[in-house]
Write a structure and sequence with these properties.
Bound molecules: magnesium ion
Structural class: alpha/beta
Number of strands: 18
Strand order of the largest sheet: 5-4-1-6-10-7-11
Oligomer: single chain
Strand content: 25-35%
CATH topology of the largest domain: Spore Coat Polysaccharide Biosynthesis Protein SpsA, Chain A
Helix content: 25-40%
CATH class of the largest domain: Alpha Beta
CATH architecture of the largest domain: Alpha-Beta Complex
Order of helices and strands: EEEHEHEHEHEEEEHHEHEEEEHHHEHEHE
Largest sheet: 7 strands, mixed
Length: about 375
Amino acid sequence: MTFHAIIVAGGSGSRSGGKKQWMLLGGRLVLDWSISAFEAAGAVQIVVVVPPDDVKQAQAAYGGRVWIVAGGAQRADSVINGLKALMTDSDDIVLIHDAARPLLKPHHINALLVELETKPAAILALPVTDSLKRGDNNRIVEALARDNLWRAQTPQAFRLHDILRAYERWPADQIPTDEAMVAAHSGINVTLVEGDIALHKLTYPADFALLESLIAGEKPLKQIRIGQGFDAHRWGEGQSVWLCGVEIAHDQTLIGHSDADAGLHALTDALLGAAGLGDIGDHFPPSDPQWKGASSDRFLKHAADLLRAKGAEIVNVDVTLICERPKIKPHREAMRARIAEIIGVEVDRVSVKATTTEQMGFTGRGEGLAAQAVCSIEI
Ligand code: MG
């Protein structure tokens, strides 16, 4: 269904301590939320009405995405400016929305569009649940019945020609509080559609905290998990050794069923361990002849792919090689780059370190090389 959006961001923000549309909410500009929601819902034209002083700033921020229009003295003037900026068929649907209700979602928009298939106008609103009192100097003078009372929210949806004609008929000396009031004055039936507490209006500074908590509640909580791995291989006759995915010329090689890259094996186990996916032997059994002489980058890539399939993201990895020889430092950057490439992360998330054991133990005596690895993943 073809529809357009007018976002009114005309407030001076005197009650909220600044112009709300340019403040941050959930790390984004307040105005950004509504624009993105209308884009996601498929609005054909989006017109944003801002105070005349803000036109330049709005053009710079959103000029390529939406039409920017200068507002008027009152909200109604701003809305009329926005409606007149629409270049469209007058029978099209237009949704008028307050930028100060930023947590708009496409499903709110769709609820109104569905209503407009059969009705001339519809708005989002919430039934009043609190008792209502009329006060005079903080003293109750009257209790009001709340039956059938609703709190109007936005968006409010109309046919373009209907709402333009309704504004023409609205008495010039009166100030409407919303478009539904203008439409009703012209005899248009406006349907109430159940709104959403998330469409609460930003008015006071405390409203920002309330909406921030709603945003935080929507985000699925992510866990950080740690994995660790250890591996060792025996030295034997050879001319080069594979360590952390890099071939190094050496007077010995590491003996193993695959290429015996203990660094990548330890790291593969760390990744599998972080996600509770078993160990390298489960996935690549040494008894299986297809892995004889296999290049260990395949094992590591497989583990990284399994993590991603589980929805995990690798945060960082840290490998320590334990040996007296060869010297690792000259190859360290190449090793980091290769691991980063295999697991698909930036190099600064990859660390490779080396140590000796001061000639103690099997690594110190040169019988073999050991490697340990830790990683963290977000899942
Ligand atoms: Mg191994």
